[in-house]
Write a structure and sequence with these properties.
There is one protein chain. With 1006 residues, the chain is mainly alpha-helical. Helix 38 packs antiparallel against helix 39. It is elongated, with a radius of gyration of 50 Å. It starts with a helix and ends with a helix. It has 54 helices and no strands.
Length: 1006
């Protein structure tokens, strides 16, 4: 009865306004119907149908309360219909009606919008702004499910679990979903038993039956219940072979097979996993696949697969490296094995594996003789320090002695031996050898003082190895010889000859050769000849240049004691060898003919010399000697012709001074006074201050007196360049002589004062050039470089004076040391033109080369290096320097790379010196740049095997080798070499940054 009354009241309430509206007009009746219709459809969840009525109602501009309700229903419908602008509509509603009673639900709807868009943080913020308990039951459960899922998606597992638990207790609809997610959370928390308990009942659920078996199988695997894991995986793969989770089931199946020791089946299962899974494979799966390959003896696949595991620094990586090393050993790739063991030994994840890896690493170093940065010594030492009680310790100790004997890491080995309190005889023998090797290494780098320190230490140890001691004496002799300490050099060469047990080798022959030179320099020609004869008998023809030189020296020895026929015999033998010293042999043969008064024969030989060796440094002397021969044959016209040829071709040569004076004298003797006067004038004008000029002035005076033309002579004397007087008056002569005596007594400061006083008193005195020369020498003695430049400059105002050559040597050295390279270059070029012997010509050519290189004048550098390399007797140090500078210059020039490589390859034959060390790298770099990767790899591996004391270039070669491997798709090998270098290189330079940049690049790309 009560319900009926209520219904009637409601009917009355509803009917009353309709009557009223009917009375006032159709418009209001229509608006009310629109609202009513839209609301009814909205409540029936017919949102699409509700929209037109509600929108039409809103357009009628109804009262505020109904408008707010209508717009609420519109934005709610937009949400339900998944309108693309639903978030914007919901937010605008809240902005328009901040105090709406629907705010709680609007926040919940907005949160759901963000949830469906995957924006879980934004969704969480809005869910937490709403009170979900105020929503309807169904909507509350939906939102609670979404809230819990948001927490799960943002890794807040604790809150997710709380809300899933809450939801499961209140919503039958979501009970199984909650079971699944709660089990999943327990799984991620490694609470496997609880997770398994939740997953098992879901196996028959239609929604989860294709999903939960994966977790069940994975849990069985984690619990080491591999038989059940295998059954679940096999059943799943039978039922769902192409399901998205099939790949993971193959992985689990492979895991089970691996732990059952069924490695062939494991390989098959893991490969199915890799073929089906397009994402990055799991490291543990790759690890087990790699070990399965190892167990089935497919070592190449084992190493390749395990290499993909080594991305993190953990126990998995350590064991992977160990088995990579073992695989490479089976493949006989000991270098790769060494690097793999090295990485395993560097990890402390598992000390047993570390011990095994460290032992194998040391063995690989020993067997491959690898010791780029001293590893061969340090690895054995480190093992004994870290594992003193290891069962391998005794073997390692015995290997260490062998390492000392065979290592190329001499510094590391010496430091290691010096730490041993009581070294055995074997170790002392190793130390003797190591010191010897360090000595020869220093010698190769032209550090002769350091070489002597090491070599003498080696000798001092004793005779543990007689031949090593003998060889040390030999290289001491070579070092002393390079330092011009000839007495000590001779002593040690003789000690070598007495001690050596190898009298048939090249060093024995060269010791005699060097002793021959020492005797030759002290003018003991008989003894020198005997030593050179011994060398000739011992030389096996391998060193034609030295053999020809020895024949020349024997000839010189006979010449000095006037055994002319014997001298000619040896010069002829030397010339017939067709070496670069053949021009000297020819020249000496001509001189001997002259001494035998066979002037025609001498002239013939000299003409042949100039014809066969047009660029010979003896060509100047040859023309002069030809002129002298004509003089001795009384053929003055031919003599004058020869001397004039010399003046034309070589006007700056000191020999030309003598030739010019000879021309004047010949004309004078012929009575052709006018020609004589002109010739003598040229001598005086061109060579002022020289002895030839003084003699020319004397002869001119005689001619003018004979011709009774004294006035002309006086005018001529006054017109001479520089007004230097040729006849010294008594005061001039005495003042200079006093100063010269003070200099001769070594009283430098007093001499400097006296010589300067002489120049002030007689600025154009007869001995002014001599004074400037002595002041140059005093400046050099006192290291007063401005003084050298001043007085050498004064001397060079008369460039053909007799002191010009030595002045240029001093001047050029000062300019070079002061970094005035352009000026030094000019001085060295002048010196080359005036050089009167081979040594000074080489000095000039060396200076030109160094200046040109530092000035970055590539063309000049190439010419200078080529000239220097053409020298018959060039020290190995200068030869290397010239090749290096020329290679650098060729590298800078376009289309000259081939020539640069020829020089680099020549230098690369000896990597003990710095030039060879860099050259070996440059050869490999060139091959890499040309994309000749196989050749570059071969070159670099050869470099690493032969090693070098210049660690920087070896480190650069490691980096380049990693670039080669990266370019050829061998990123694992590239990474291995970089890691090995990183662990062993100690330099403080740019190598570390090169390593880091490449490791980062490899990590990004893989």
């Amino acid at each position: 009865m009560k319900k009926e009354i209520t219904r009637l009241i409601c009917a009355a309430i509803c009917c009353t306004p309709i009557i009223g509206f009917a009375q006032t007009g159709d418009k209001f009746t229509s608006t009310d119907n629109l609202y009513k219709e839209g609301k009814e459809l909205f409540q029936e969840k017919n949102y699409a149908a509700a929209l037109p009525a509600l929108k039409a109602f809103v357009k009628q501009k109804p009262v505020a309360s109904l408008l707010q309700d209508a717009e609420y229903m519109l934005v709610s419908s937009a949400y339900e219909l998944k309108d693309k602008n639903r978030i914007e509509l919901l937010r605008k509603y809240l902005d328009r009606y901040p105090d709406t009673p629907y705010a709680n639900r609007i926040y919940a709807l907005l949160a759901s919008c963000y949830f469906y868009e995957g924006k879980y943080d934004e969704a969480l913020a809005l869910f937490n702004s709403a009170d979900l308990d105020l929503l309807g039951n169904e909507e509350r459960d939906d939102c609670t499910y979404q809230l819990a899922t948001c927490y799960l998606k943002t890794d807040n597992l604790r809150e997710a679990a709380i809300w899933f638990e809450t939801l499961r207790a209140n919503s039958p609809k979501y009970a199984k979903d909650c079971d699944y997610y709660l089990s999943y959370i327990r799984y991620t928390q490694k609470r496997y038993s609880e997770a398994l308990k939740g997953f098992l009942p879901l196996q028959d659920d239609s929604k989860y039956k294709a999903l939960v078996p994966y977790y069940i199988a994975e849990i069985y695997t984690q619990l080491k219940n591999y038989d059940k894991a295998q059954i679940v995986a096999q059943n799943y793969l039978s039922a769902y072979p192409n399901n998205e989770h099939a790949a993971e089931m193959y992985r689990i199946l492979g895991d089970a097979y691996y732990h059952f020791g069924q490695y062939h089946q494991a390989v098959e299962a893991f490969n199915n996993y890799l073929n089906k899974d397009r994402s990055a494979p799991r490291r543990d799966a790759l690890y087990m696949l790699g070990l399965s390959y190892y167990q089935t003896k497919v070592y190449s696949k084992a190493a390749e697969t395990l290499g993909k595991v080594t991305t993190d620094n953990d126990a998995l990586t350590q064991n992977a490296y160990l088995h990579m090393g073992l695989s490479y050993l089976q493949l006989a790739e000991k270098n790769k094995a060494r690097m793999a063991f090295e990485q395993a030994a560097a990890s402390n994840a598992n000390m047993q594996i570390k011990e095994q890896a460290a032992y194998n690493y040391a063995l690989c170093l020993h067997e491959t003789s690898f010791s780029a940065f001293g590893e061969s010594v340090t690895a054995f030492e480190k093992f004994l320090n870290e594992f003193p009680t290891s069962p391998y310790a005794e073997k390692v100790s015995s290997y260490l002695v062998e390492v000392y004997m065979n290592t190329r890491s001499y510094d590391a080995a010496l430091k290691s031996i010096d730490r041993i309190a009581k070294p055995s005889a074997q170790i002392l023998e190793a130390k003797q050898k190591i010191l010897f090797q360090l000595g020869t290494q220093s010698f190769a780098n032209a550090d002769f003082e350091q070489a002597l320190k090491y070599l003498n230490q080696s000798i001092a140890i004793g005779q543990y190895n007689r031949q090593t001691k003998a060889d040390a004496y030999y290289w001491c002799g070579e070092s002393y010889y390079r330092l011009s300490r000839m007495v000590e050099a001779a002593r040690d060469f003789n000690a070598y000859l007495q001690l050596t047990t190898q009298p048939n080798n090249e060093m024995y022959a060269l010791a005699n050769y060097n002793l021959g030179y020492i005797a030759f320099h002290r003018k003991d020609y008989t003894q020198a000849s005997n030593y050179f004869q011994k060398y000739v008998q011992l030389e096996k023809g391998e060193n034609a240049t030295a053999l020809a030189d020895a024949y020349n020296r024997i000839g010189d020895c006979h010449l000095h004691v006037r055994n002319f026929e014997e001298a000619k015999q040896y010069y002829s033998q030397a010339e017939q060898m067709n070496t670069s010293s053949g021009d000297y042999s020819f020249y000496q043969l001509a001189l001997v003919s002259g001494l035998q008064k066979d002037y025609t024969g001498k002239i013939t030989l000299l003409n042949r010399l100039v014809g066969k060796y047009p660029a010979s440094p003896y060509a100047v002397n040859a023309i002069y000697e030809k002129g002298r021969s004509y003089v001795l044959m009384d053929n003055n016209n031919q003599a004058i012709t020869s001397f004039k040829e010399l003046l034309t071709k070589y006007p700056e040569s000191p020999v030309s001074r003598k030739a010019a004076a000879e021309i004047g004298l010949l004309y004078y003797q012929k009575g052709d006074y006018n020609q004589a006067i002109e010739a003598y004038k040229q001598v005086i004008e061109k060579y002022p201050g020289s002895e030839e000029a003084r003699l020319a002035m004397r002869d001119l005076k005689s001619i003018y007196v004979d011709l009774n033309r004294i006035d002309e002579f006086a005018a001529l004397a006054n017109a001479m360049p520089g007004h230097i007087r040729f006849d010294a008056n008594e005061q001039d002569s005495l003042t200079y002589a006093a100063a010269e005596k003070i200099y001769a007594r070594g009283r430098m400061e007093e001499a400097k004062t006296s010589l300067n006083k002489y120049l002030q008193t007689f600025p154009e005195g007869a001995f002014s050039l001599n004074a400037h020369y002595y002041l140059c020498l005093i400046g050099n003695e006192q290291k007063n470089y401005d003084m050298i430049l001043l007085h050498s400059g004064k001397l060079l105002e008369y460039p053909n004076n007799p002191f010009a050559e030595e002045a240029l040597i001093l001047r050029a050295e000062v300019q070079f040391n002061q970094q005035n390279m352009a000026e030094a270059l000019a001085s060295y070029k002048m010196l080359k033109e005036k050089a009167t012997n081979v040594e000074r010509r080489q000095l000039a050519e060396t200076g030109i080369l160094r200046c040109a290189f530092l000035l970055r004048d590539d063309i000049e550098t190439i010419h200078a290096a080529t000239d220097l390399l053409a020298e018959a007797k060039l020290s190995p140090e200068l030869r290397n320097e010239a090749l290096y500078y020329r290679a650098k210059a060729y590298t800078n020039k376009q289309k000259a790379d081939k020539k640069a490589m020829e020089d680099y390859r020549e230098l690369a034959k000896d990597t003990r010196n710095s030039y060879g060390a860099e050259a070996k790298y440059q050869v490999a770099q060139s091959l890499y740049d040309a994309k000749e990767y196989a050749a570059a790899e071969k070159e670099l591996l050869n470099y690493i095997e032969q090693s070098t004391p210049h660690a920087y270039w070896l480190a650069r070669s490691f980096i380049l080798l990693s670039d080669v491997y990266h370019a050829t798709g061998k990123d694992l090998d590239a990474r291995q070499y970089l890691l090995s270098l990183q662990q062993n290189y100690q330099g403080n330079d740019d190598i570390e940054s090169m390593i880091e940049s490449r490791l980062s690049k490899l990590k990004v790309e893989n």
